[in-house]
Amino acid sequence: MNDILLPLLLAIAAALYSAVGHGGASGYLAVFALLGLAPASLRPAALALNVAVASLASVQYIRRFGSFPKLLWPLLAGSVPPAFIGGRLPVDATLIKLLIGTTLVTAAVRLLTAHREVTHLREPAAWILFLLGMVLGLLSGLTGIGGGVFLSPIFILMSWALVRESSAVVAPFILANSLSGLIGALSSGAQLPNQFGWWLLAVIIGGFAGSTWGARHGSPLLVNAVLALVLVIAGVKLLLT
């Protein structure tokens, strides 16, 4: 039964996450845990699936809203090396998961209750983005997720970008950090499971559908609600697994 249910749930997770410019790794890990698989051992698979879906989301959102190099490049400069290191480190992350899970759920509640229109965007300093990238990159590699669930609420709540436009930064950030973390994990001897090809096909289908809807048709209010749901799923997953 898992041979059918697992790809289906992965496709649904990919569609949901890619609708807000995310790759879906935390959702994939939640699916693995739900079906009785060991999420820690499947961290490289989650990162690899993240690379595929974040690639689709990057194309869709950058094509729709353009690129934001002043925001993206300092983040990438700070995050990619720590993501590689985090991907190589052994994970005994009970405390990290507790802290991150609580943070994500809190951010989701904040997004849902902060009913305000952004009238003036603030441009963060490059050094702030660099330091933020370092922290998120390390967390990305350690936890096996791309970092978008951390970055999106920060961008929105700090008024650094509008809801949908932020995905044009978040998606390539996830792509770069997932790829760096994946290379780190594979270089330390991790392997992808035999069924990975079917999982990859499933998330590509779901990711294309979700990112197309989010970039072209999703209203900011609805996308914000979807993002909050994504954060809750990711946070609960980290707290319970």
TrEMBL record:
<feature type="transmembrane region" description="Helical">
    <location>
        <begin position="95"/>
        <end position="113"/>
    </location>
</feature>
<feature type="transmembrane region" description="Helical">
    <location>
        <begin position="221"/>
        <end position="240"/>
    </location>
</feature>
<keyword id="KW-0472">Membrane</keyword>
<keyword id="KW-1003">Cell membrane</keyword>
<feature type="transmembrane region" description="Helical">
    <location>
        <begin position="198"/>
        <end position="215"/>
    </location>
</feature>
<dbReference type="GO" id="GO:0005886">
    <property type="term" value="C:plasma membrane"/>
</dbReference>
<feature type="transmembrane region" description="Helical">
    <location>
        <begin position="31"/>
        <end position="59"/>
    </location>
</feature>
<protein>
    <recommendedName>
        <fullName>Probable membrane transporter protein</fullName>
    </recommendedName>
</protein>
<keyword id="KW-1133">Transmembrane helix</keyword>
<dbReference type="InterPro" id="IPR051598">
    <property type="entry name" value="TSUP/Inactive_protease-like"/>
</dbReference>
<keyword id="KW-0812">Transmembrane</keyword>
<comment type="similarity">
    <text>Belongs to the 4-toluene sulfonate uptake permease (TSUP) (TC 2.A.102) family.</text>
</comment>
<feature type="transmembrane region" description="Helical">
    <location>
        <begin position="125"/>
        <end position="156"/>
    </location>
</feature>
<dbReference type="InterPro" id="IPR002781">
    <property type="entry name" value="TM_pro_TauE-like"/>
</dbReference>
<dbReference type="Pfam" id="PF01925">
    <property type="entry name" value="TauE"/>
</dbReference>
<feature type="transmembrane region" description="Helical">
    <location>
        <begin position="168"/>
        <end position="186"/>
    </location>
</feature>
